[in-house]
Design a protein that fits this description.
This protein is mostly helical and 107 residues long. It has helices at 15-22, 43-56, 60-72, 80-93. The protein is built from four helices and no strands. Helix 2 (43-56) crosses helix 4.
Amino acid sequence: MYRATYCHRGAEGGILADAVRERGGVAEMRKIERVQTGVRLEKNVLKVMKAVAAHLEIGLGDLIEGLVLHNFEGKAPFSPQTLAFIETVRKAYGLELTAADSHKLEE
């Protein structure tokens, strides 16, 4: 049984750390139901996402959930340190796409 998503970020906090702070230091575990899905992504976007998930010591699905939930609330999901890591990995994998490209992609 799945119990919680833990997003490790060391001293800089993480998604769970943010939730604990917002709830006065008590982590509420929420029971959820997950479903398997097939998602198609641009190959370099996926490479960067996998690297970020590994860096944060979380699964790819947990990363995607965290990104979506933060964005639904208009919150930034990453610390400055993680953003610096992402920029390094983007360059390493040749990811040149930006948010401005998101509605202009074709296969």
